[in-house]
Amino acid sequence: MATEESSFAVDEVRAALAGTRFTELHWVAQTGSTNLDLLAHAADGGGEGSVRGADHQTAGRGRRGRSWSAPPTAAVLVSVLLRPPAPAVDLVTPAVALAAAEAVEQRCGRAPGIKWPNDLVVAAADGGPDRKLAGILAEAAWPPGADVASGWRSPSASTRVAVVVGLGLNVRAAGRAPELADIAIACDEIAIPGSPPVRREDLVVAWLAALEHWYARAVDPAGRDEVWDAWRRRSATLGRRVRVDLGAEDLEGEAVAVTAGGQLVVRTLEGDERTLAVGDVTHLRTR
């Protein structure tokens, strides 16, 4: 059950986003999951561009059912409802990631990389493991007949699909669990020294303003290559030696490409190429 009291400056953010599709913005002090809130809103006919945020989530989620937690007000926890045409659904996550990377670079002065398929990471100065700055979770509510459970058939190009995308972006390091010290990083740890404190409101405005651009390119057939080209330029994965956890096996090799459908192409140690739709990637040191 969501609560309604929050210190987040909603009116300020709405005013800054005037002229974009993201002016239906609601923010609460606590909820279970902003993604679940918006999926319910989508089922009730909620419009594209609806945004739900919270100071704290009690049931935040990541990929593969993992939990996502952060101290209250220490992270941007926000979800957006989009309704792209079916051929553009695969471009929603890269568009959101691009927008988030641009927002961090604009507000913090340092550009994070995009780790396939859905994280923002910051490279360690000593060449050690990248540290996670943000995670993205996209959940699509396909219309009847367009998923495997209901006897899949290819949706038409005009079919609109409700997609809820959640962003969890670490803003403040204070209160972080000790076991995450070498895994996670926050905006206040990468901001230019002496600069004003990074505000959640400024990050949300910068993210949604950038998403207005990249989502428009994603749903325009003429703009889709532009999205992937920009994603590749910001990729922290391409050109890296990686290990990919596929569940039943681990795959090691070099990440050499990402396809137009978002699959990762890995050249294995044996020299063949594997195209992967899912998997957990670990960036490895160069040996």
Gyration radius, rounded: 19 Å
- At CATH level 2, the architecture of the largest domain is 2-Layer Sandwich
> pLDDT average, as an integer?
90
Describe the largest sheet. 7 strands, mixed
Q: Could you list the spans in which at least 5 consecutive residues all have pLDDT below 50?
A: none
Helical segment tally?
A: 6
Distance between the termini: 50 Å
What is the succession of H and E elements? HEHEEHEEEEHHHEEEEE
- Gross geometry: globular
CATH H-level homologous superfamily name of the largest domain: Bira Bifunctional Protein, Domain 2
User: Please, how many domains?
Assistant: 2
Q: Which key terms come to mind for this protein?
A:
12 strands, 2 domains, BirA Bifunctional Protein, domain 2, alpha+beta, SH3 type barrels, 7-stranded mixed beta sheet, 24% helix, 287 residues, 5-stranded antiparallel beta sheet
